[in-house]
Write a structure and sequence with these properties.
CATH topology: TIM Barrel
Bound molecules: zinc ion
Radius of gyration: 18 Å
Mean pLDDT: 92
Number of domains: 1
Number of helices: 15
Strand content: 5-15%
Largest sheet: 8 strands, parallel
Strand order of the largest sheet: 1-3-5-6-7-8-9-10
Number of strands: 10
Helix content: 25-40%
Structural class: alpha/beta
Distance between the termini: 14 Å
Low-confidence stretches: 326-336
CATH superfamily: Metal-dependent hydrolases
């Protein structure tokens, strides 16, 4: 079983999708690279079917890939401390119902909801989204203005624990979607969620990308060893700084047992930056792969990530009744 639990999706709101991208973010280098990577026609952002074209490309890649399941992530707006929406600081909205509709239409796709805990309707909306098949809730605190250790999050944690919905939360310095202080992305702020009984998956295990940045990797390791319900995903680990952190984790059975696979699509792996853990031949083979989801899986398999890491999501995600997680490996699942 191979599940990618960290796949991003974005749209401009075409066709009443409910998605939104801040104009400044649309002009950013990071976003222009994403559009280029989608291999869709130029001028696509102005087309009335833009959002469905983007979603169609991503779901087609997933359908053709070795993945058994992929969690497509919605993305809620930023909110003020008083629970009102903060339009001025919102860079991206990926609408929950837009993603839930895709999950309903595609067997491999799972619905990753995103819901700001300060919203006055947060708990009621969580229950509605569970009815639509939500398998987890995703946060990016430094983009959404979430302080995970603030007492106003506690009712939301109680609801997550009650419904056995895991929280996938970005940890570490954020580069692409940065609107609020990076200190909000400190994994230690997630301790109140763990203490209320929520399973928490720290995206990127608190690692950094650039060596001059603050790293929360040691904090993540200490917490992973201390809290049964604390995990980490290895999304966007296919780059020079993180691949050595991954090698370190794979030497520890106790820490490897806390890892889950995610690609962080549209973030693309950089195999040539990972020479050492990869041979030159492996890196060149990986670079030639055209399906980004197959490439992300093969990259992590090549550096020795065991099958259990790809399958662990089956134990954690809340599966909607109409989706069955494949529990036995399908014949193609281990092909690199
Ligand atoms: Zn991500």
């Amino acid at each position: 079983m191979i599940c990618d639990l960290h796949v991003h999706l974005a749209g401009v709101g075409a066709g009443g999708s409910g998605n939104w991208l801040a104009p400044a973010f649309q002009r950013s280098y990071a976003f222009r690279r994403v559009v280029h990577g989608l291999k869709l026609p130029s001028g696509m952002l102005a087309r009335p079917d833009c959002d469905t074209r983007i979603a169609g490309q991503i779901t087609a890649w997933i359908a053709d890939s070795v993945l058994d399941h992929a969690v497509l992530l919605a993305f809620d707006a930023a909110y003020h401390d008083d629970g009102t929406r903060d339009h001025a600081h919102t860079l991206l909205v990926t609408d929950n119902d837009f993603v839930a509709d895709l999950a309903a239409a595609h067997g491999k796709i799972l619905f990753g909801a995103s819901l700001h805990p300060y919203r006055r309707d947060a708990v009621a909306e969580l229950e509605r989204l569970i009815g639509r098949g939500a398998c987890l809730v995703k946060w990016l605190p430094g983009a959404q203005n979430i302080q995970p250790d603030h007492p106003r999050c506690l009712p939301f944690y109680d609801a997550l624990a009650h419904h056995r919905i895991p929280l996938l939360c970005h940890t570490g310095v954020e580069h692409t979607l940065k609107a609020f202080p990076n200190t909000l992305n400190d994994p230690r702020r997630l301790i109140p969620a763990l203490e209320r009984g929520v399973a928490v998956i720290a995206a990127h295990c608190g690692t950094r990308i650039f060596l001059h940045e603050k790293s929360y990797f040691r904090s993540w390791q200490a917490m992973a060893l201390r809290y049964d319900q604390f995990y980490g995903d290895i999304s966007a680990f296919g780059m020079v700084t993180r691949i050595w952190s991954l090698r370190h984790l794979l030497k520890s059975p106790a820490l490897t047992a806390k890892l889950l696979f995610g690609s962080d699509f549209p973030v693309a792996p950089a195999p040539l930056s990972c020479l050492g853990p990869l041979s030159l031949r492996q890196a060149l083979e990986l670079r030639r792969m055209t399906n980004p989801f197959d490439q992300a899986v093969a990259m992590m398999q090549a550096v020795g990530v065991p099958d259990a890491v790809f399958a662990r999501a089956a134990q954690l995600l809340r599966m909607p009744p109409d989706k069955q997680l494949a529990t036995s490996a399908n014949p193609g699942a281990n092909a690199a």
